[in-house]
Amino acid sequence: MATISVFRILTPLCLLILIIGLNDAKVGNDKYYMDKMCGNDHFVFDGDKQPGISLQLTSSSKYKKNFNCTVRFRTAQPSQRLIITIEKMDISDCPGDSLYIYDGTTLLNKDSKQQCGTPSPFTFTSSTTQISMTFTSNSAVESSGFQAAIALHFPMIASCPQNLGFFQCKNKNCISKQLQCDGRNHCGDETDENQCSILSG
Ligand SMILES: [Ca+2]
């Protein structure tokens, strides 16, 4: 009898743990802080349970003075590309403090209004397999920095089929379907987040 009772308790508990585990696997964004990754290469993997990256400059309320940090994001496959969307930027000491985003070695945010200040959200899709970000600050005023979403883009997959786990953005970027309706702008044009109220009722 005691054994049966233990099973009665343990079985629902195991199911609950399994359900929580499955829900965790659906979470599309892994959170990273750039100031903890300086000098690193970070691979963004296809099929990873977390195919999108949520990147903030720092976990603190303000970034450090006299700070210089470069992080490189890379695809594991040569056919893949990266989409970087700067969702928020708050770099008040402009241009003393600045963020530079490179596609391979090409500077993407050439417009100085996208390197610091508080610009509107903006996005780039890489033409190479790597995006590097360099942030520098001086000894004066600090602010919160920026928040970005990074996603894999699959340009070689024809028609970007939803039934095979992809989502085609209106701007033709092709991302993992797991990144749809998770509250973060992975497409760059927000179309992965536009239809969510309809989908969720
Ligand atoms: Ca998204």
From TrEMBL:
Alphabetically ordered keywords of this record: Disulfide bond, Signal
Entries under InterPro entries matching the protein: CUB_dom, LDL_receptor-like_sf, LDLR_class-A_CS, LDrepeatLR_classA_rpt, LRAD2/Mig-13-like, Sperma_CUB_dom_sf
Domain CUB: residue ranges: 38-153
Listed PROSITE patterns: CUB (PS01180), LDLRA_1 (PS01209), LDLRA_2 (PS50068)
Disulfide bond positions: 169-187, 181-196
Domain of life of the source: Eukaryota
Signal peptide residue numbers: 1-25
Stated name of the protein: CUB domain-containing protein
Organism placement in taxonomy: Eukaryota, Metazoa, Spiralia, Gnathifera, Rotifera
